[in-house]
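Table S2 (continued). Query chain:
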Amino acid sequence: MESPPPVPKAPAKPTPAWVIVIGILLPFVWGGIAVGLGFMAMLMMAFGSDSGLSKPELQNAMLVGEMISIGVAGIAGIPIGLGIAWRKVRKVCLWTGGTMAVLGILGAVVCVVVYFVSFV
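Corresponding output:
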């Protein structure tokens, strides 16, 4: 008994150009947001130091939190880039990168808010 002839596979569609452009630009956008939040935190630290309300341990904690958040938001571009280029793991990579980006930005926001609330 002969096996049936193999069914030819349809060629894979190329990744649309707009998906590639968005994947390249998004890390810059959320990295800019995280760095902007860090800059705002630095300004708040300067105002706190001028008013005598500054607490060095809070400043150090906020700076460490900001650096970690910016790092996480920046590293999120790696799985997103892999997801765009590698079809087999696209969903997992895009979800992982998106989650990392959101958590990085939220971490930066929390650091700034907690530091600001410490003055009130």
